[in-house]
Design brief:
The structure holds two protein chains of two kinds.
Chain A lengths: L8 E3 L4 H11 L3 E3 L5 H7 L6 E4 L9 E4 L2 E5 L4 H6 L1 H6 L1 H8 L4 H6 L2 H7 L7 H6 L3 E5 L4 E5 L4 E3 L2 E2 L6 E7 L5 E7 L10 E7 L4 E5 L6 E2 L1 H8 L4 H11 L10 H19 L5
Helix pairs in contact in A: 9-10, 10-11
Chain B lengths: L1 E4 L2 E4 L8 H8 L18 E4 L2 E4 L12 E3 L9 H8 L9 H9 L7 H7 L10 H11 L1
Parallel strand pairs in B: 1-5
Antiparallel strand pairs in B: 1-2, 3-4, 3-5
The structure holds flavin-adenine dinucleotide (FAD) and FE2/S2 (inorganic) cluster (2 copies).
One FE2/S2 (inorganic) cluster (FES) binds next to loops of chain B.
């Protein structure tokens, strides 16, 4: 049954600092951004919290800026703003590409990058992109800010290092060298959660990350190492099989995911070979 | 709370986390906005918030405070898209139609077929089939 919304409480901060104080002094509170994950839970009646903190009005968290060499994306940047951002298209085109394949335009207008990261689904489409970009997750509480490398942010299935008094305020993306590549495989181009999603960079040492094939998004370090050292595709696919732990679920089967992951790896390598950048 | 609804200021006393969809239908009596899935998949509940298409089933009403909301009723009865949907028979049961039209409005002038298809990817129709819907949008633009 749908959650009875009249019994839910919403705190309305006037600024980021105000929001952080509320988290510390009046918690536990569940941050509410674009609500595209949380309101699906309302509909299913599976929401496990009753007190929320409205982030939607915190305008400074929507900014996308360049700071020296680092691309900074505020947690509240929507998919639509990622798609429209010239900075994102220039520096990390695979993030704009991933955003284009999330939901339909209605979801793109509301869903946020911070929400995708915080939601911690292994199928989150931006997560492999952030993994290969070696992004930094910027977390803030009332009295401190900390920067967590993306590879250390997830600790298990839907588990992150974020503490209850912290908000994700943004993502920092260092320059990425090499050719960027992204593919999402789902039942249809729009409005479908990924069966397998891959982001990769073909630079001096390749970087490859996969979603939906393990409890969290993963970097294929063994495969990267092998390919970087000149190994052939057979060897790389063999290593891939050891790196991933796909499961059978509503959307697909483990066997299918293994086959698709292998095919995507081969496709990435073939399509980015011979072209240096 | 206050927001602008179809060019009129409204002030309502509603639960802040009520779905915009329910507030429109039940508190404002505007039943042109439809509910299909209730989970963001079908687009039947599409309305415009500050000119952007959103699923009203996923928007907590507190998040439209001070915003401009447009529903199908806000177009009057004689919008070119409404006429084109009639002329091309772009509707059968009609449940998806308000959402289709409001999403189509955001496509801008003279959208290509590819742009129409992509733009309407979040609007599902179970009866008409998409060809007549795309024709109607093309004709109206
Ligand atoms: C129809 C539909 C299609 C979808 N398609 C896709 C898809 O193709 N690919 C995909 O990856 N996802 C998809 N999603 C899921 C969803 O849209 C994304 O995960 C989105 O990015 C969530 O962002 P949000 O702002 O809506 O998050 P919310 O629902 O507001 O929040 C999600 C979670 O993150 C937490 N949170 C949000 N912001 C912060 C913050 N700044 N700091 C700390 N915690 C925070 C919330 O507390 C909550 O636990 C889809 C959803 C729907 C309904
Ligand atoms: S009812 Fe809102 S998207 Fe289906
Ligand atoms: S006309 Fe019935 S769902 Fe589209």
């Amino acid at each position: 049954m749908r959650t009875a919304v009249s019994r839910l409480e919403l705190l309305q901060p006037r600024s980021l600092q105000h929001a952080l104080r509320m988290l510390r002094d009046e918690g536990p509170l569940t941050p509410l951004a674009g609500a595209t994950d949380l309101y699906v839970a309302v509909n299913f009646g599976t929401l496990d919290s009753t007190r929320f903190l409205n982030l939607w009005g915190l305008e400074p968290l929507r900014r996308i800026t360049l700071c020296g060499d680092t691309l900074r994306i505020g947690a509240l940047a929507t998919y639509t703003s990622l798609i429209r951002s010239r900075l994102v298209r220039q520096r990390l085109p695979i993030l704009a590409r991933a955003a284009l394949e999330v939901g339909g335009v209605q979801i793109q207008n509301r869903g946020t990058l911070g929400g995708n990261v915080a939601n911690a689904s292994p199928a989150g489409d931006t997560l492999p992109v952030l993994a290969v970009a070696e992004a930094v997750v910027v977390l803030r509480s009332v009295d401190r800010e900390r920067r967590v490398p993306f590879a250390e942010f997830y600790t298990g299935y839907r588990q992150t290092v974020r503490r209850p008094d912290e908000l994700i305020v943004g993502l920092e993306i260092p320059p990425v060298e090499g050719r960027q590549w992204f593919r999402k495989v789902g039942t249809r181009a729009a409005q479908a959660i990924s069966k397998v999603v891959i982001a990769a960079v073909r630079g001096s040492s390749p970087r490859i990350a996969l979603g939906s094939v393990a409890p969290t998004v993963i970097r294929l370090s063994q495969v990267e190492h092998a390919l970087g050292a000149g190994a052939g595709m057979d060897e790389a696919v063999h290593r891939l099989d050891q790196d991933i732990q796909p499961i059978d679920d509503l959307r697909s089967t483990a066997d299918y995911r293994r086959d698709v992951a292998g095919n995507l790896l081969q496709r990435f390598w073939a399509e980015t070979g011979g072209l240096s950048s | 709370m206050r927001f602008t609804l179809n060019a009129r200021e409204v002030e309502l006393n509603v639960a802040p986390l009520a779905r915009l969809l329910d507030v429109l239908r039940e508190d404002c009596g505007l039943t042109g906005t439809k509910e299909g899935c209730g989970e963001g998949e079908c687009g039947a509940c599409t309305v415009l918030v500050d000119g952007e298409a959103v699923c009203a089933c996923l928007v907590p009403v507190a998040q439209v405070e001070g915003a401009e909301v447009v529903t199908i009723e806000g177009l009057g009865d004689d919008h070119p898209l409404q006429r084109a949907f009639m002329d091309e028979v772009g509707a059968q049961c009609g449940i998806c139609t308000p959402g289709m039209i409001l999403t189509a409005i955001t496509l801008g002038p003279r959208p290509s077929l590819a742009k129409i298809r992509r733009g309407l990817a979040g609007n599902l129709c179970r009866c008409t089939g998409y060809e007549a819907i795309y024709r109607a949008i093309h004709r109206a633009s």
